[in-house]
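Need residues for this backbone.
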């Protein structure tokens, strides 16, 4: 069999055997997948994962560890606990767990907030789509807050906050903007403050391990934080973390059962040993190695922004705050430009208008290769 086009609509009665099936599918994966680690890939918040992480995920699959039952995951449970102990202090947190993506991390945090008395969710109008989704799942009203011209939610824009879980974003998906994290200090400081503060740091959170850590100053005052490990921690999907300031906070979302040796914490029941791959990456790279890769991406995004700012063919929306660059062509239709750029860029809408979006997630990126493709698509200046 050459490819999947030869398959019928019915499940075959006889199989091909492991080797041939693997040969067919592996060829499809290699030829029909987005190549996130090519020199000019600069479009999305999806990096090529750390090599050691990819290898460990394959090893994990052989053993099929299940974190729901510690007796089925003796080392995996220990590995995840070690990852939490290593990373939580960078955010001023004390506890947490891993889950399959930052949507589930946000859901766990907002669920915990509801169990502690929050009755509504307030977030930026530019918050990730998972935030209103989570609010709907939890039966909580969602109240979006308008953002400033730079895309940031500010203190001045906030409504009345009583009994609310206030969600701040550290690196919005479209523009990479960090909300005013000092808003977190409102909790407990005024009768009008929120009941709970959650920071969706799915994208920008790992900056806390770099020289850019001050850009997230104030995050340590939050009650909970979500970080997407399959973004700037360079993990294969699905991998995310949710952290809590109060070491006992997770007890509100923990359930026991006659067939469980320990309570099940969070949204997921059975879940994979993602902590092993993350532990391997942190062990291999250390804090300095991780920081170097993120800082290189930040420098590349700043370099690209300067080139766009100085080029007569383009308009830069604003200087990147977390490695996300937004711009548009002054000579050609933006949608056409995005289509022709391919893996070099993606699309976002700002105030209803299309803008090119580029993200410094690829640790193998070559900014000269990225710029060369942009320049070719833009064409010669008038």
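Answer:
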């Amino acid at each position: 069999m050459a490819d999947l086009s030869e398959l019928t609509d019915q499940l075959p009665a006889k199989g091909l055997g492991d080797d041939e099936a693997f040969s067919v599918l592996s060829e499809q994966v290699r030829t029909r997948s987005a190549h996130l680690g090519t020199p000019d890939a600069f479009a999305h918040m999806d990096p090529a994962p750390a090599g050691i992480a990819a290898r460990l995920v394959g090893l994990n699959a052989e053993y099929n560890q299940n974190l729901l039952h510690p007796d089925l995951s003796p080392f995996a449970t220990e590995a995840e606990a070690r990852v939490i102990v290593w990373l939580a202090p960078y955010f001023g947190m004390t506890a947490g767990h891993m889950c399959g993506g930052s949507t589930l991390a946000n859901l766990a945090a907002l669920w915990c907030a509801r169990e502690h008395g929050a009755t509504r969710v307030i977030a930026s109008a530019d918050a990730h789509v998972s935030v209103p989704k989570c609010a709907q799942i939890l039966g909580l009203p969602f109240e979006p807050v308008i953002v400033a011209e730079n895309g940031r939610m500010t203190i001045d824009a906030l409504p009345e906050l009583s009994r609310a879980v206030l969600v701040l974003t550290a690196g919005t998906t479209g523009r990479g903007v960090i909300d005013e994290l000092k808003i977190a200090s409102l909790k407990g400081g005024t009768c009008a403050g929120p009941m709970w503060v959650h920071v969706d740091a799915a994208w920008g959170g790992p900056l806390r391990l770099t020289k850019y850590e001050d850009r997230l100053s104030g995050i340590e005052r939050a009650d909970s934080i979500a970080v997407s490990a399959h973004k700037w921690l360079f993990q294969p999907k699905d991998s995310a973390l949710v952290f809590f300031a109060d070491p006992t906070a997770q007890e509100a979302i923990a359930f026991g059962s006659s067939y469980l040796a320990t309570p099940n914490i969070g949204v997921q029941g059975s879940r994979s040993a993602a902590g092993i791959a993350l532990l391997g990456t942190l062990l291999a790279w250390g804090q300095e190695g991780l920081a170097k890769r993120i800082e290189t991406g930040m420098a590349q995004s700043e370099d690209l922004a300067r080139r766009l700012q100085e080029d007569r063919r383009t308009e830069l929306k604003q200087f990147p705050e977390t490695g996300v660059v937004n711009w548009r062509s002054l000579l050609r239709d933006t949608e056409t430009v995005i289509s022709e750029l391919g893996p070099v860029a993606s699309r976002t809408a700002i105030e209803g208008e299309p803008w090119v979006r580029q993200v410094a997630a690829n640790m193998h990126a070559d900014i000269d290769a990225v710029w060369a493709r942009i320049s070719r698509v833009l064409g010669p200046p008038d």
